[in-house]
Amino acid sequence: MDIRHTATTCPYCGCGCGLTLETSQGRILRTSPTPHSPVNEGRLCIKGWNVHDFVQHADRLRKPLLRTGSQWQNLDWDNALDIAAARLAHIRDTYGPDSIGVLTSARCTNEENYLLQKFTRCALRTNNIDHCARL
Amino acid sequence: MAGLATSFGSGAMTNSFAELAHSKCLFVIGSNTTVAHPMVGMRLIEGRRNGGRLIVADPRRTALAKLADIHLRLRPGTDVPLINGLMHIICEHGWQNSNFISTRTENFEELHDSLRQWTPKYVADVTGVPQDMLLRAAELYARSEASAIVYCLGITQHRCGVNNVRSLANLAMLCGQVGRAYTGVNPLRGQNNVQGACDMGGLPNYYPGYQKVEDCAARAKFEAAWGCTLPARNGLTTIEMMHALHDGHIKAMIIMGENPVVSDPDAGHAAEALSRAEFLLCLDIFPTPTTELAHMVLPGASFAESEGTFTNSERRVQRVRQAIPPLAGRTNSQIIAALSRRLGHVMPNDEPCDIFDEMCALTPIMAGMSHARLDTQSLCWPCPHQEHPGTPILHQTGFTRGRGLFAAIPHVPPAELPDEEYPFLLSTGMRHAHYLTGTMTRRCGILERELPELTADIAPADARRLNIREGARMRLTSRRGSIVSRMHITDSVPEGVIFAPLHFAEAMVNLLTCPALDPVSKTPEYKISAIRLEKV
């Protein structure tokens, strides 16, 4: 069996422990602490040891969903992005850019946060962007 | 963040985790560290073993408080009186660091004048902490060779949160316990990348690297780099956006990886506000009470499916690497870039390492970083050029703002205190097996077995008086809402205080919490609301 180890960073609290995910054929088999991480030096908390459980949980969303009345309709990506962009453009152009607000995420990567604030400022043309740092 | 940024010029943790194991005195206030930040908790315990003295200020007898040399069991919401009282004692005994005050700070007279009223007797009356403990704590913190302050949401989640933080900054400057190894003022961030989301300009008033939106030169720089005209006015904060939705000024919301219906104070208000949106677009990895209200939900990629970086509490930028392909087929960056293109703004970069390079070129505090460099070692910002080793200790020769700024800090009592109708004080927080709103941890089998449902802590005397047995189910009601919880009888909470964790969507504690906000940071007062208990 082809086993891979990927050293990465824990997605829970602000400690930022080094995690190593052991994978085979696109599935995570287990999580262990990265020994040389300066933060956790080979230790992990109970949440960290079990992190792969939520990543592969059956509840994960796998398709874009559109609400139609009280139902959810599955969409393909291109169709979903076309509809979302059209709705946002309509609202931006009808009520003005400041009629749209964006919550970015303290869960997501720096790269994703950078991109979302750039999108908010350049494409939506508003500074209405925040996240839950204050909460 | 607003508090430290005003005092020092930077809102981030001043020192690094590893240093805490070598501090001579650790002053932990408003942080249940062993539960909320286990690896920092380990460092504190290591510091204690290495001979460092531990002072814990917390109304609750936490695991860390039990290990402390001094446990200052202050009344909830009396942090400013406590800290002012410690500073009063320090000045009375001449334990302040006059050299540091004169060479590194300004506005000391204003602070000094304000301390006069905070006599030990008065402070003991207000906080409930005995005078001799105040004296011992003040001496230990001021006179130790290297003292570090560690704080968390127990300090900031008050309507006087910014005042609390500025008081701690006052204390550190008064004693010269900042800008050196093993000292500092150290806020622990609640989430993996709160620091990064701030650093990246996920804020209504800042571009990446804390460059101000209202600064014309900064705006011109980003306009040139991004090739478009940028809006000149500051945007709205999260809570202000919820109010604007409610009032109809905001018509559409995009929410990436957040769950405000559960996490916002006065959660009922957030749900109602979001349900008024003409278009609510959520990007998340799981269905949540927030995605339930959406018009469209896009399936996000988890950390295990993403390349990039997170920045931890100590400003350490660390690599995140893709272990498995995105379960729903697209990375979050690809989704954002695709939306942007459709809205008329084409982004040249949607590969994480290129996005990171683009960001670093515009962000002086991270100019020396790249994925390639971070692959061999993590780096703490500021890291201004490619040979720079990073900066684990801030403010070593001068504060980011120049001189550290003292300020007189008045006491602002909590917005809602117990009364006859709502006689208990509710405080919220975390348990060891779960995390925040529980969307991740409650889907981990072992963690869910550890703690499957909401339990609220009540003091033995209160339980006796109300005839509550261990595990009894009680209704908790505030002016805003009502939930049912099992009760756990423990002397970790003082009489009159109920503690409840926020992890359970089926019993949302934030339906009860008080929506009072700090006027500057807009952080809600999660730590203090008035409730009553009734048999179910």
Radius of gyration from the alpha-carbon trace of chain B, in angstroms: 23 Å
- Strand content of the residues of chain A, in percent? 25-35%
If classified by CATH, what would the architecture of the largest domain in chain B be? 3-Layer(aba) Sandwich
- How many separate structural domains of chain B? 4
Report what the structure shows:
The complex is a heterodimer of chains A (135) and B (536). Chain A folds into three domains: 4-55, N-terminal domain of TfIIb (Single Sheet); 62-95, no CATH class; 97-135, no CATH class. By secondary structure, chain A is α+β, with helices and mostly antiparallel strands. Chain A has four helices and seven strands; from the N terminus they run βββααββαβαβ. Chain A has helices spanning 46-49, 51-55, 77-95, 110-124; strands spanning 4-9, 18-24, 27-33, 65-68, 71-74, 100-103, 129-130. A three-stranded antiparallel beta sheet of chain A has the order 1-2-3, with no helix packed on it. Chain A has a two-stranded antiparallel sheet with strand order 4-5. Chain A has a two-stranded parallel ribbon with strand order 6-7. The model of chain A has no long low-confidence stretch (mean pLDDT 94). The N and C termini of chain A lie far apart (45 Å). Chain B has 536 residues and is of the alpha/beta class. Chain B folds into four domains: 2-188, Dimethylsulfoxide Reductase, domain 2; 191-235 and 300-385, Rossmann fold (3-Layer(aba) Sandwich), CATH 3.40.50; 236-297, no CATH class; 424-535, Barwin-like endoglucanases, CATH 2.40.40. In chain B, helix 5 (79-92) packs across helix 9 and helix 14 crosses helix 16 (267-275). The longest helix of chain B is centred in the first third of the chain and has 14 residues, at 79-92. Chain B starts with a helix and ends with a strand. The model of chain B has no long low-confidence stretch (mean pLDDT 94). Chains A and B meet through strand 1, strand 2, helix 2, strand 4 and helix 3 of A and helix 3, helix 12, helix 14, strand 9 and strand 10 of B.
